TrEMBL record:
Pfam families: CT_C_D. It comes from Lysinibacillus sphaericus OT4b.31. Gene3D superfamilies: Cyclophilin-like (2.40.100.10). This is Kinase A inhibitor. It comes from the Bacteria. NCBIfam families: 5-oxoprolinase subunit PxpB. GO terms for molecular function: ATP binding; hydrolase activity; kinase activity.
Length: 228
């Protein structure tokens, strides 16, 4: 049985629900379950929810009875009606060419790994989209292999080009737009992550499973020319 999360009112119509602060896929599944629970039980009282690593922030348009909500959470867990939503599994191409891998040498020096070892570890597992934020469509992907844990840049760049892929701490991420940034850039994808003109503006969704595979610079150019 999962305890009702700690609640903190941010404003009169904004409340944050917080679970265990551990960043893990198991904990994130609980967050997703609670997010679905809020959408089902608050309905017209709910404007939107924003889920992340271990919290769900709810924006409401009228008062809610927290005691009733706690009881509904208990009842939901005793039933078998709530099922985990299947994650999408996405394959994302990445080019590690030195033109795009601006911080590869820094990562190699920090980890004592070779160029090939960094690439292999980065592609060695599927990553969970824990959060979409910072920029429109920016996916925070975890959990990075511990041998690749590298601090972010002490002095962020004034500009990082869109579709650049970086690592920082225990995560890897992809810049959807040209922007300032302090992640260690190790490659680039030819895919577009954010397009305001598309019906679905973001390439990624919360809970997606993402795996990278390597492409050459020529393959990068060819895919990019197709406007994917």
């Amino acid at each position: 049985m999962i305890d009702f999360p700690h609640t903190m009112w941010i404003s009169q119509y904004t409340v944050r629900f917080a679970f265990n602060e551990d960043i893990s896929q198991e904990n994130f599944q609980i967050v997703q379950k609670f997010d679905r629970f809020l959408k089902k039980n608050l309905q017209h009282k709910l404007v939107e929810t924003v889920a992340s690593y271990h919290t769900v922030t709810a924006y409401i348009n009228q008062k809610i009875d927290m005691k009733v909500l706690q009881k509904q959470w208990l009842v939901m867990q005793m039933s078998t009606t709530d099922e985990d939503v299947a994650s999408r599994h996405l394959q994302i191409p990445i080019c590690y060419d030195e033109e795009f891998a601006l911080d590869m040498q820094r990562v190699m020096d920090s980890t004592c790994l070779s160029y090939e070892e960094v690439k292999a570890l980065h592609m060695s597992k599927a990553y969970l989209v824990y959060l979409i934020g910072f920029l429109p469509g920016f996916p925070y992907l975890g959990d990075l292999h511990e041998q690749l844990f590298v601090p972010r840049l002490k002095k962020p760049r004034k500009s990082v080009s869109a579709s650049s892929i970086g690592i920082g701490g225990s995560q890897t991420g992809i810049y959807p737009l040209d922007s300032p940034g302090g992640w260690n850039i190790i490659g680039k994808t030819p895919f577009t992550l954010f397009d305001v003109h598309e019906k679905k503006s973001f390439l990624f969704s919360l809970g997606d499973q993402v795996r990278f595979y390597e492409i050459t610079k020529q393959e990068f150019i060819e895919i990019k020319s197709k406007g994917v």
